[in-house]
Design brief:
- The complex is a heterodimer of chains A (526) and B (225).
- Helix content of chain A is 58%, strand content 12%.
- With 526 residues, chain A is α+β, with helices and mostly antiparallel strands.
- In chain A, the strands form 2 sheets. Chain A has a 7-stranded mixed sheet with strand order 5-11-10-9-6-7-8, with helices on both faces.
- Chain B is mainly α and 225 residues long.
- The longest helix of chain B has 22 residues, at 71-92.
- Chain B is elongated and about 70 Å long.
- The chains are: A alpha+beta (526), B mainly alpha (225).
- At the A-B interface, strand 1, strand 3, strand 4, helix 10 and helix 12 of A face helix 3, strand 1, helix 4, helix 5 and helix 7 of B.
- Strand 4 of chain A pairs antiparallel with strand 1 of chain B.
Chain lengths: 526, 225
């Protein structure tokens, strides 16, 4: 039996929060409304429905970037060669690696002209780029930067920015750019990608000043005019600007496969099922080919496995606690013993044995009570007489039942209350016990961590700490800026997968992902 | 021993304890029978129909004979018939104000203050890119895990710098939380949506919703709340 509060009523189901703070979907019955507190049972629960949201399978490696306090004055480059006719341009795209380019985009997303913002850029830019699809051109530019080793393990940042050049018009290129960066960009070493959404005003200003749109936007947002003279890596590292930049990582498949291989080898020690994935991952490494799907699939499998492991260890602790309790009581029953056996089997099979554990708890409680009662038997002999009397009273009441339904209702209500109180008491007791276990659990988890993990954790901490220090410096400024940037990136990404989602809504989710991946990143780097 | 004989025996020996515990054990059955008959869920509070059903179940126990067949089928019959009487009676007396109010509360069972908090909470969740659907999918299924998450959320909401981080960045300062509360990153990550939502409930002072997530055993608070 569950008691729950309705928090959301949909056409085919309602979401309730139980008094155990479980969120459940239940079938609709009659008129239901938010705030209604209801009683329901197992059979009312609707397990079929899953919200359509969640992981889109899109490979997305977000990473906030650690910041070091380094400020350098960059070198100012004048406007480079201007090619083609830019009169029909409706959008401006900038690409900063260290070569910095501005691309004027016209109708059909074709490149109208390219401005090489610095000397390095002139090595990248070529005449044949004009008239091609701008995404294709960006891709060629990144490839050439790799070939010329502007993009390497030390300088591994790519910043792309875009804005409409027409006041009041939405920028139509956002989605295309983000989906290219997220899905199509292939790199030979892992890179950090930063996408900055800008506006027509800034775009025109960038053109006038002959500076990169992306850098100018960051300069505006961080209120630091010098930012336009920094390289992307420096922007990421500098305290004023680094904070507002959220980069996501495009990993080289091979590097990622090698990491997965390592992880799988560790899992293999305890779970033979890992062998299958390990074999496939190793084959893919030997193959050297694309392995996006395999990577996603393997990552999902590892996540699942870790979750099951966690659940199993929680449940095992529960069982051990019950066994301890039994040994304290000093007695057991065949039912309890067989139930505990079943639980062990269920855990070994990776099933959720929570219901069985609750059953065992109840049996053990009952046993304990029974033993207590036997102790108190002598004392209670006198009481029994009184009990009988009471029972007779009850009987009388019940005889009158048909005539006086109302009265009975009240009585029953009281009964109900009493029962509830007892339930609650029990639950609380159980909870407390389990709490202690949990605390221990946590300690264990931490102990179990490898030295490597510990190191990683420390890294994470450091990174976070660094960030925080800066948080305090200019919280207010950064806030607007960061919100702006993040919303734009994430909106586009999510819009392409999930039309229903509201713009603001995605922000939080993506940030959450950032937090995770930040951790992952560090682990991977180590 | 089968249930039929069990019921018969406990009524004959008038073993009140056994009777009570049987009623308790079959409460889910009573609830689902009642809500099936009424075509609605029973309310947690003040639902006369629940009382009627419980007493009908008890009545069924008293009147049960082995010849009547399966006890549960018999009990179902009695519950439904008593509920029908109850409904008719309510309809007959509906005119009086008192009954009208009662009927009203049976039908709705909703409570405005709670409703407002639930909706306000939903709005705040929205700002964080969350909704009840995602919370339902993301909330830990295991009771222990949930309880642990409640504790973490409660402690987190007591640390102003964490709360401001959460409201500014719209995500949990996972690494610092792990460090501060001596828990593994994994524990927080696994329940991050749930923890975030719970921190919101504490921070926004949704007092009714706090009942859902109050940790069962209070730990030392990290700071004044």
């Amino acid at each position: 039996m569950y008691r729950g509060t309705v928090v959301k009523v949909k056409k085919n189901y309602a979401i309730v929060v139980t008094d155990q703070n479980e969120y459940l979907r239940i079938h609709i019955k009659g008129k239901m409304e938010v705030g209604q507190q209801i009683l329901f049972t197992e059979s009312d629960i609707n397990n079929q429905i899953q919200s359509g949201k969640g992981h889109s399978g899109m490979k997305k490696k977000w990473a906030a970037i650690a910041v070091a306090a380094c400020m350098m004055i960059g070198i100012f480059f004048g406007m480079g060669p201007l090619m083609g006719d830019s009169t029909q341009a409706y959008a401006l795209v900038s690409l900063d690696i260290n070569p910095s380019m501005e691309i004027m985009v016209g109708e059909d997303n074709l490149v109208l002209s390219i401005i090489a913002v610095n000397d390095e850029a002139s090595q990248i830019v070529s005449d044949d780029m004009v008239g091609k699809d701008f995404i294709e051109v960006i891709d060629t530019m990144i490839k050439r930067s790799e070939d010329l080793e502007y993009l390497n393990t030390d300088n591994n940042h790519i910043m792309v920015s875009s804005a409409s050049l027409i006041e009041g018009e939405d920028n139509p290129l956002n989605t295309l750019i983000v989906s290219y960066l997220e899905e199509d960009l292939e790199v030979s070493t892992s890179v950090q990608v930063i996408y900055v959404e800008s506006d027509p005003e800034t775009a025109n200003e960038a053109l006038e000043q002959g500076v990169s749109l992306g850098k100018l936007e960051v300069a505006h947002q961080s209120d630091d005019e010098m930012a336009v003279h920094l390289s992307v890596s420096e922007l990421v590292d500098a305290p004023e600007t680094g904070l507002i930049i959220e980069a996501f990582e495009i990993e080289n498949d091979k590097e990622e496969l090698l990491e997965l291989e390592e992880e799988l080898i560790q899992i293999l020690a305890v779970n033979p099922d890992a062998a299958e994935y390990l074999a496939r991952v190793q084959a893919a490494i030997a193959d050297g080919g694309e392995a996006d799907e395999l990577i996603d699939e393997t990552e999902d499998w590892i996540d699942d496995w870790e979750e099951r492991e966690d659940m199993a260890s929680d449940l095992t602790e529960d069982v051990e606690e019950l066994e301890e309790e039994l040994s304290e009581i000093g007695e057991s029953t065949p039912e309890i013993a067989s139930l505990l056996g079943q639980i062990r089997v269920a855990i070994a099979n990776g099933e959720d044995a929570e219901a069985l554990i609750e059953e065992a708890e109840e049996l053990i409680d009952a046993l304990e009570e029974k033993l207590d009662d036997e102790d108190d038997m002598d004392d209670e002999d006198d009481m029994d007489d009184e009990d009988d009397m009471d029972d007779e009273d009850d009987m009388d009441d019940e005889d009158d039942m048909d005539d006086e339904d109302d009265m009975d209702d009240e009585d029953d209500m009281n009964d109900e209350d009493d029962m509830d109180d007892e339930d609650d008491m029990d639950d609380e007791d159980d909870m407390d016990d389990e709490d202690d276990m949990d605390d221990e659990d946590d300690l264990d988890d931490e102990d179990d961590m490898d030295d490597e993990d510990d190191l990683d954790d420390e890294d994470d901490m450091d990174d976070e700490d660094d960030m925080d220090g800066e948080d305090d410096l200019d919280d207010e400024d950064d806030l607007d800026v960061e919100d702006g940037m993040t919303i734009e990136v994430s909106t586009d990404v999510e819009d392409s997968t999930d039309v229903e989602d509201s713009t603001d809504a995605e922000d939080g989710v993506d940030n959450e992902d950032d937090a995770d991946d930040e951790d992952d990143m560090d682990e991977e780097e180590d | 021993m089968d249930l039929n004989q069990q019921v018969k025996d406990m009524m004959e020996s008038n073993n009140t304890e056994a009777i009570d515990s049987l009623i308790q054990e079959y409460t889910p059955f009573i609830i689902s029978t009642a809500s099936e008959h009424l075509g609605r869920y029973l309310s947690v509070e003040n639902d006369g129909a629940f009382g009627v059903s419980l007493s009908a179940f008890h009545e069924a126990m008293e009147r049960y004979e082995i010849e009547k067949g399966n006890f549960l089928s018999f009990a179902k019959l009695v519950i439904k018939s008593r509920l029908s009487n109850f409904e008719q009676k309510l309809l007959r007396t509906k005119q009086t104000v008192e009954w009208d109010e009662q009927l009203h509360s049976f039908d709705r069972g909703a409570d405005n203050e709670l409703k407002m908090e639930i909706e306000a909470f939903e709005n705040v969740l929205k700002q964080f890119g969350l909704d009840y659907e995602e919370l339902t999918d993301g909330a830990p299924k295991h009771r222990d895990t949930r309880e642990r998450a409640n504790r973490i959320a409660y402690d987190t909401s007591g640390v102003p710098e964490f709360v401001s981080h959460i409201y500014h960045k719209r995500r949990l300062p996972i690494a610092r939380m792990a460090e501060r509360f001596f828990i593994s990153l994994k524990v927080i990550k696994r329940c991050k949506i749930y923890i975030l939502a719970s921190v919101i409930i504490w921070t926004e002072k949704f007092t009714r919703l706090q009942e859902w997530i109050r940790p069962k055993k209070s730990l030392k608070l990290e700071s004044d709340l």
